[in-house]
Structure formats: C-alpha cells, structure tokens
Design goal:
Number of helices: 19
Distance between the termini: 30 Å
Largest sheet: 7 strands, antiparallel
Number of strands: 18
Strand content: 15-25%
Shape: globular
Structural class: alpha+beta
Radius of gyration: 24 Å
Low-confidence stretches: none
Helix content: 25-40%
Mean pLDDT: 95
Strand order of the largest sheet: 15-12-14-13-17-18-16
Length: about 550
Amino acid sequence: METVKHQKWWGWGEEGLEFTYEDKPKFAGFLLDNVGVDVHDSASATPDFDALPVPEPVLKPALKKALAAIVGEENLSTDTECRLVHSFGRGVVDLIRLRQPDLGRMCDVVCYPGSEDEVVALMRAAVKSRSVLIPYGGGSNIVGALSAPRGETRTVISVDMGRMNTVLSIDAASGLALIQAGVLGPDMEEQLNAQGWTMGHFPDSFTWSTLGGWIATRSSGMQSDKYGDIADMTRGLRMVTPDGILELHPLPSTASGPSVREMVLGSEGRLGIITSAWMQVHRVPAKRTIQGYFFPTYEAGLKAMEEIAASDAAPSITRVMDKYETAFSIANGKQSSPMDHFLNQAVQKLMSMKGWNLDDACLSLIGFEGSSRHVRYEKGLVDAIISRNGGMGVGTGPGTLYDQKKYDVPYIRDFLLDRGIPADVSETATPWRYMAQMHDETIAAAHRAMERAGVQGYVMCHLSHSYHAGACQYFTFAVNDSSNSMLDTYYTVKKAIQQSFMDNHGTVSHHHGVGVEHAAWLPQDISTTGIRFQGLLFDGVDPDHNLCPRP
C-alpha cells in the first residue's frame, strides 16, 4: 500500500533512520560504565527476512473475495512483509520475538478501508464469517495489543486505518475539529496548522501513532499540562461496533448516565473501530519556549512541581529528571561549542558554590505557551517557586536540545537491542504524597531484580504530566543480556517495576495502556469487581469475541 506509511518490519520508524553516537562524545563511556557494553563492538545484523518462518495465511477464497469487494483489490494485502508489519507493535518484546524469531499468530490479511461505510462492511463480514478484527494505526503499540492469541484458529484481519487521514472540518466558534481516526500525528498537525490551529497532543510516539490509537489507549502528550490528556480533548466520536455505529455528539459536558465516552477511551480495540472524532483544538500560540532548570535533588524538583501544579501558573510542560536520567541526558548530548563548554563550567561552579553535590543535580524542563505577556507572567510565577525550592534557571539551551531529539528515544532503544541490551519503559501515576516513595522504591526494586538476574543494568526516571492531585513518573530501564534468556531477564525487571507501582499507590499505566503486558496487574489496580465490570462490557458489545481477543 504505497499511499500509507509503514514502519520497517524489524524496528522503529523508517528504514535508513537510526541512532548514532558518533556526535555524542560522552555516550560510549556512559554505556560502558553503567551497562557494561562497548558500543564499538559489532552490532547484530539486521534480521534476515527471507529466513523467517512466516506461516501461510488462514484465509478462505470466498472471504478474501468478499473483503476485496469491500475495500478494493488494491487495498487488500496478503503480502508476507505487510502481514508481518501488522502483526507486531514496537514494544521491546515484539522486537525480541522478531529477532528470535517467534512469530506467534500473525494476521492473515490486511485491509485498508477508505471510508466509514467500508469499516461497517468489514465488521459485518468479520462477524458473519466468525473472523477476528484488529484495528491498526501507526503500529507503535508497546503493550502487545496487536497480536492475536497463539491458539487463534479463526482468520485474523488487520484493519489499517491509514487511508482515513483527513481533518474533515473545523468549528472555529467552538474550538472543535472533526478528524478521521487514521491520521498520523505529523499529518494531522500539518493540516491543522495550515488553518492556524493545533491540537497540542505530542506523545513520544507522535510520528508513528494515530488519532484513533491515542483515543483507544488513553494517550498523553508531552504538553498535557496545558492541553490535557487525550481524554480531555476527545469531545465526540463515531465508532463501528458489531451492533452498529456508536455516535457521541461533541458536547462540552453531559450527564447522560454512566459515560459511554469513557468506556470507549482506553478500550484498545475491544469495543469497535473508531472512525472519526471531534477533538478540542486551539489557536497556534504566539510564543512557545522551554526553559531549563536544575535542582539540587530530585526531591526538591518534585516539591517544586507540586507547588507549580497548585499555583496560578499553567505551563505546557513540567518535567524533572532524576539524577540517573539527568546523567543519561548529558551523556546523550552532542559535542559542545567552546561557549557551551564555558557556560557548562560556569553553571557547575555556581552549583558547587551553593553546596550542591553535582552527582545529585537534576535537570528540569518547563514549557510556556501563549502571548508574550502571558508567557512572562507564568514564567515569573514558576521562577519564584523554583527559587524557593533551591533550583536555578539555565536558559533555553536544554529545552532547545529536548525539542530536537524528543522523538529519538525509540531509535536509541533499537540501537541498544542490536547490542544485546533490551530496554523498555514503564509509567504510572501517583498522588503527590507518595511521589518520592514511588520513585525510590521502584528504583530499588529494579536494582534488586537485576541483582537476582545476575546482570548489569540501568534504570532512570522523570516526572511529567502534572495534575492537581499528583503526576506521572516515567521509568526507563535497560539490562545487559544478549543470551537466549534475554526475555526472562527483561521480565524479571519489568515485573519488579510494575509490582512496585501496585505497592506504592500507583496505577498499572498512566498512558501506555494495558494490552497483554500489563493485564496481570489489573486486579490489584481496579479490583476483581472492576475486572468483572470490564468483562461484562466487552462480552456484551462483542459476544463472539471478534474484536482484539486476548489470551
């Protein structure tokens, strides 16, 4: 399908784009010291596509003919690589399975509908033929939600929404835009920006995720402090279900019983296929800036973020990295100019004069948007709070660097995996009262798990997405294990981190969703009664389990 963008089958993003450390003089030494891997050693070769044991599709000629009649022959594919791309997300477990290879139950056919009517027809065909439908956006899912269960014997149809990629209309008076669900983030923003608008939603997966995927996983973007999470932005939508089309009108608020909108948000394809949505949009701000700050400790940064959340300031970004992520960020920086080097030395000298332990210093990024006057006002409020908590401003340099590389992290993940280092992320949300406890206990739990597994590794964290009652903490971890037990080692650490979330007043996930990877912790998160509520909902809407069946 030439008109729809796809990621390369073995990793993140486009073929030919990859992370390099050549212009980052500190990166190699950092990785060797902290993970025990020499980046100068040869990396594993790109997996050999022709050697993969790809099974033949389970697709009867009559069903294939019916599907082709719906979307057109040119918009249906049983091509091996196309099926492979649509059977895996881009989580580290998916990529390890591709490298082993362990292909599990792949999809059998990929359909590219171009309209809601075609999605309705695909749904009817799937229900009639007792097939499985799995909606596909940009393929960036990292919780195992794109793969069918291994024992699935029915035909598995991947519904790629990439042709439905248009901003259909903008209600300027209401600040609402009607947008098709298959649009990728950059394409959506380009269409909105051309008319002077923005949605303000920029998740780390922005370049390879879609509006429908954001809604289905309750996504959060890096500017959520100002614009809200996707749940705040989604005012109405249309979704094709086995029982017909669900339509929710674009309303500012409603009291029409238990919220059906909330049922759709985070449903991960198990209730239907979202075709379009009415989204809150905003005029492109006149001014946007990201200021850098340092705190003497992570705890000081947490306290400042809590005070900012309770203040009259409403920044677009409130992020503070712990000392481990600060060290990684510095190591991932490019070669400094002589002036940058001088300024860095001056900042470190000032920190020392203040009595800071430089190894404990934590970098923070605060974003401001709006009119020049509004930005000055909010920055003044924030500067005062940061000063009261012992922090210091360092200008726009760190923010500019962050803007340049904010979508590069998955490429670093793939670079590490090629060198026998599985790396992943886990995120949670916690009330302010337990924020420091959550951080310290989770870091300790990860270190204990690495020790049990007998491997060297690294774990780091940052706070982002602040709310009145608390915030998200986003943990990144990497382990040095290129053996055949790589997945076992990975899960040892992953499970320790996720259980720490449950033990320290957190949630199973703040914005990545549940899928297969996080399902085991749901009973602790929402209780067994909550699980039963969800099960009754899924079974009631999809009694034959045609939609995204889970193991």
